[in-house]
Write a structure and sequence with these properties.
Distance between the termini: 32 Å
Strand content: 5-15%
Number of strands: 10
Strand order of the largest sheet: 1-8-9-7
Helix content: 40-55%
Structural class: mainly alpha
Radius of gyration: 25 Å
Oligomer: single chain
Number of helices: 26
Shape: globular
Length: about 700
């Protein structure tokens, strides 16, 4: 499934890039991690040498007025967004570095595939990359690879046929209309169950189908649907008619779908039913038949996560003309496969999703597109090759020290809260006790036996990988939850918290500058990766994570009074971000404080606990606490590096898209949002009441 409950520090920073939609992205592999090392300082041996370039700071901007501008404006002006990207910043630069490393790995694998051991991951990755780079063969094939699917759609006669078609398509790893996969049971997290989840829309959210502001985009989408169908030989007139049918169909699905804010509520992610109960919701779609086709045994039941959506899906099975179903399935089959088809299909898809929707001027070079598909299909196998050269045991040990120190600071914060009762505190500490940190990469790698990858058929390879990964995922249903499993690859520049297994996870690729540097002073590391660690740990106690206990179960462990106090405090954070209008010349485009609440709580909590951990480290080495580097104190450098992490620029269309869909606030606001609530920041930079970076007592947000 989509793993809606994973809480990454940033959205879409993954080096996987835009994955080809052909098939299903790989599931996480089994993993294990060693226990954190004993607490220790991470101070650099040479404090006289800075790894933060203070010449990038803009002395014309007052840090107390615009801290993001003070730290990042000169860098942003000197680093325009590349034509093949919709944004560019610290995360993106680090992701680009990771991509370049991976590029060499896959190029070497492709060159050596013929000599590699039969069935090895080196051979499979080499063949997958080689087949994707053979544009001549891909262009020659046109849309031949999907003709059997299109022919099967043409043969559908009624809703029963459509249901049978979906059963078979899912079994091949091709999901349409909805999604299905495994996940921890929200009420019995020690066990994996099946989850079905709403999907099926070609536009970003339900609002895009009705909002008058999106009328031009809807027209562009209609044109895209028609052009997509025409590329397979459908006449212009018929393509226009089918496009209208697809739009009408999706509009009905959208009306029954939940909005991104609603999907943040655990009750809207989980709705456990028996198979018989599910069949009552969808009398025209038999779930027993579906699970049989997938080769899955459902015991007591599964999560029919959004019943209203599935009721509408069933209604359409019964009432929509089969021609409308055919138009919908035909279009999405082509759209899903377009990145693996000939150039005209790839260009057509980019023209809408890249240029029109996201404002990206140029496509990524072919090697990046194919590397994205390799990551989506065999990402953990590529990660196994990546960490052999890119992540040392020493780096892992140093990161473990930071995790220990920041976690200890979070525990102290909880224990010293003045607004929470002792009873609820005890339960919060019990949850804290069961945190499982996972750092760098899994110790146990996934087995790829059974996946056949050939050197000369890109589409077939992606389909094979999609089916292989789908079967790997759903095979977990009914089995114990493995807390040591990873949901991100080591080469991903990101980190995440998972409330259903209470783990905090830090891939190798993010454990690099500007987040983490073994040669850096304490302030740089705590303001970077320390705050990331604090962020992910704080997710365990944000508005959503706080509804899960230490075992990963969705239960209420709060007193009624404590929850009311928590909600009152978080409401102030909602208002703070609601007030932000980050896009120049668009004063009506506000941040959605409710959609971004979890991430904003985690930023605020994470930065506070990382700052506390820094103070503990400096007390252990008082000679460092009073030393300035490049004229800045350790406290100042802590906040400087936090802001540097969020430096960057973004294209306007992408910024608007993210305001509607992204649970993270814009990066420029993350640089200032949490610090403006911290007295420690005002003290560090001698800010005064009334300065923009000093929120008044009535507006200052204090949670964890």
């Amino acid at each position: 499934m989509t793993k809606q409950y994973l809480k990454p520090i940033a959205l879409a920073i993954s080096v996987a890039l835009a994955l080809t939609a052909c098939g299903k992205q790989e599931s996480a592999p089994a993993a294990s991690t060693s226990a954190p090392a004993a607490a220790a300082t991470t101070a650099a041996a040479d404090l006289g040498k800075s790894i933060f370039d203070v010449s990038e700071l803009d002395p014309k901007i007052n840090a107390c007025a615009d801290f993001n501008g003070f730290v990042n404006s000169q860098w942003v002006a000197a680093n325009p967004i590349p034509a093949d990207r919709t944004r560019w910043g610290a995360f993106d630069k680090l992701a680009e570095d990771s991509l370049n490393t991976q590029h060499k790995i896959v190029e070497d694998a492709a060159k050596g595939a013929d000599q590699a051991a039969a069935g090895s991951i080196e051979q499979k990755i080499g063949n997958l990359y080689k087949s994707g780079m053979d544009e001549a063969a891909i262009d020659k094939a046109g849309f031949d690879p999907i003709k059997p699917k299109l022919a099967a759609i043409d043969q559908l006669k009624n809703g029963k046929d459509v249901a049978g078609y979906l059963d078979k398509s899912f079994a091949e790893g091709d999901m349409q209309v909805f999604q299905f996969g495994s996940g921890a049971d929200f009420k019995h997290a020690e066990t994996q169950i099946g989850y079905t989840f709403q999907a099926g829309l070609g536009l970003p959210t339900k609002d895009y189908y009705t909002d008058p502001k999106q009328a031009d985009l809807r027209k562009a989408y209609l044109d895209y649907i028609a052009k997509t169908l025409q590329l397979t030989g459908v006449s212009a007139a018929d393509a226009k008619k089918q496009a209208d049918e697809v739009m009408a169909f999706e509009t009905k699905l959208a009306a029954a779908s939940l909005a991104p804010v609603e999907l943040r509520t655990p009750e809207n992610q989980y709705h456990f039913v028996s198979v018989a109960e599910a069949n009552k919701v969808t009398p025209h779609f038999n779930w027993e038949n579906f699970f049989k086709a997938q080769g899955v045994t459902i015991d007591k039941g599964f999560s029919l996560s959004q019943p209203k959506f599935f009721a509408e899906f069933d209604k359409l099975l019964a009432s929509a003309p089969v021609s409308q179903w055919q138009a919908y399935l035909r279009f999405h089959t082509i759209d899903d496969a377009s990145d693996a088809l000939s150039k005209n299909f790839r260009d057509n898809k980019f023209a809408f999703y890249g240029k029109t929707l996201s404002g990206q001027p140029e496509q990524k070079p072919r090697w990046k597109q194919v590397l994205g598909a390799v990551n989506g299909s065999m990402g953990m196998a590529l990660g196994e090759l990546y960490v052999k050269t890119e992540f040392t045991p020493e780096a892992k040990s140093r990161a473990e020290e930071l995790v220990t120190n920041v976690r200890n600071a979070l525990k102290a914060r909880i224990q010293n809260l003045d607004w929470m009762s002792d009873e609820t505190k005890a339960k919060a500490i019990a949850k804290w006790d069961t945190f499982l940190p996972k750092i760098g990469y899994p110790d146990k790698w996934r087995d790829w036996t059974g996946l056949t990858i050939v050197p000369d058929n890109y589409y077939a390879n992606l389909e094979a990988a999609g089916k292989f990964n789908y079967e790997y995922d759903i095979a977990k249903i009914g089995k114990p939850t493995d807390r040591k499993e990873w949901g991100m690859t080591p080469q991903t520049v990101n980190a995440y918290y998972n409330p259903t297994d209470n783990t905090i996870n830090f891939p190798a690729a993010i454990l690099q500058p500007p987040f983490f540097d073994a040669k850096a002073d304490d302030a740089i590391n705590y303001g970077g990766i320390g705050a990331v660690i604090g962020h992910e740990a704080s997710h365990g106690f944000d508005d959503e994570g706080s509804q899960f206990d230490g075992a990963g179960n969705n239960v209420n462990w709060w007193s009624e009074a404590d929850r009311a106090k928590f909600d009152a405090r978080t409401a102030k954070l909602v208002q703070q971000f609601n007030d932000y209008t980050p896009i120049k010349d668009q004063p009506d485009a506000h941040v959605n404080g409710k959609l971004t609440l979890g991430e904003n709580i985690a930023d605020l909590g994470g930065l506070n606990v990382a700052y506390d951990a820094l103070q503990v480290a400096l007390k252990q080495h008082p000679e460092e606490a009073g030393k300035k580097i490049d004229g800045y104190t350790e406290d100042q450098r802590f906040f400087l590096n936090w802001a540097r992490v969020w430096r960057g620029n973004i294209r306007e269309k992408q910024a608007l898209l993210r305001l509607n869909t992204d649970p993270h606030a814009p990066a420029s606001l993350r640089a200032i949002g949490a610090p403006s609530n911290m007295p420690a920041f005002a003290t560090a930079f001698q800010c005064k009441p009334g300065d923009a970076m000093v929120r008044g007592d009535d507006k200052q947000v204090k949670i964890w």
